[in-house]
């Protein structure tokens, strides 16, 4: 029988044997994983838990919140605030940062999350997830301790010390990187623990599968139109091969498929709201996914710049996203520089 490695053991090994993460970060990630387990339980209850449907509120982005958006946000805040490893948190569902109250032990990390990604899929029983990213508070000098502010969060994705997501689908799977490749853990519901099921995940450099919301095609910029047109032209077109298309409308599920079997995911800028760089949020959607994809040998760009190099200017900053199989992302980048 093959040895089962729990998430806890994997993290201990990352800390002790490989020296990749400090003890504080390990404990923080365990709390995040426990929160995902609770969210998974709430998600699984569905109608039985009375938690489906919209809440009567909007988030800072003007999107109608679902009850589960709010529940997942509360689970993450409540579980993490007393853990002792965090200075502050930020979420898609909160206008500004949440500073850990000083009645709780303080830590040096900053946790950001999209508590429930793919909200439009909650009520129709399609995969959804939680995305998270961990940064270190910039100022470590104990003599000049300043209160944590939004400014502390505005670090490029290259500064992440851990990132991942948990997808609530037919299985609940937590996917994680601490900068040492990508590992996947499946929730064993009977045992109540995450078990390592894939290590050293690799995205093939080439693919025949793309993911994009085609209904927006008429709004896209020329380079994206060209790329998708060429995929659609199939064997008879310049690519000389047929492509398949998938669009779950939950970024977690689409990225999970790409990490599992390759592909390319696009949520590009479009002219419906030309002043916004894109729909997805840089800090807690694009950055963690971009790091996971790069750690698996793929690439992630906004068309002009590597996503992880973008210097954020605000917490809820948006970004155009193209990520996945490296050769496809490189092709998209080249189309942006020539058109
Ligand atoms: O409905 P659209 O326009 O295709 O958008 C789908 C995209 O929006 C998102 O749902 C945004 O996430 P939230 O549900 O967290 O707002 C992505 O997960 C997904 O890729
Ligand atoms: Mg989201
Ligand atoms: Mg969300």
From TrEMBL:
Domain Fructose-1-6-bisphosphatase class 1 C-terminal: 203-336
Residues annotated as domain Fructose-1-6-bisphosphatase class I N-terminal: 6-199
Record InterPro entries: FBPase_C_dom (IPR044015), FBPase_class-1 (IPR000146), FBPase_N (IPR033391), FBPtase (IPR028343)
Pathway this chain belongs to: Carbohydrate biosynthesis
Highest taxon in the source lineage: Bacteria
SUPFAM superfamilies per the UniProt record, alphabetical: Carbohydrate phosphatase
GO cellular component annotations of the record: cytosol
Cofactor note: Binds 2 magnesium ions per subunit.
Subcellular location: Cytoplasm
Record EC number: 3.1.3.11
Cofactor (UniProt): Mg(2+)
Positions bound to Mg(2+) 2: 114, 117, 285
GO biological process: fructose 1,6-bisphosphate metabolic process; fructose 6-phosphate metabolic process; fructose metabolic process; gluconeogenesis; sucrose biosynthetic process
Alphabetically ordered keywords of this record: Carbohydrate metabolism, Cytoplasm, Hydrolase, Magnesium, Metal-binding
Gene Ontology MF terms: fructose 1,6-bisphosphate 1-phosphatase activity; magnesium ion binding
CDD domains in the record: FBPase
Annotated positions binding substrate: 117-120, 213, 279
Catalytic activity: beta-D-fructose 1,6-bisphosphate + H2O = beta-D-fructose 6-phosphate + phosphate
Keyword Calcium (UniProt): no
Keyword Hydrolase: yes
Primary enzyme class: hydrolase
Binding site for Mg(2+) 1: 92, 114, 116
Pfam family, one: FBPase
Family: Belongs to the FBPase class 1 family.
Subunit structure: Homotetramer.
Protein name: Fructose-1,6-bisphosphatase class 1
Classification of source organism: Bacteria, Pseudomonadati, Pseudomonadota, Betaproteobacteria, Burkholderiales
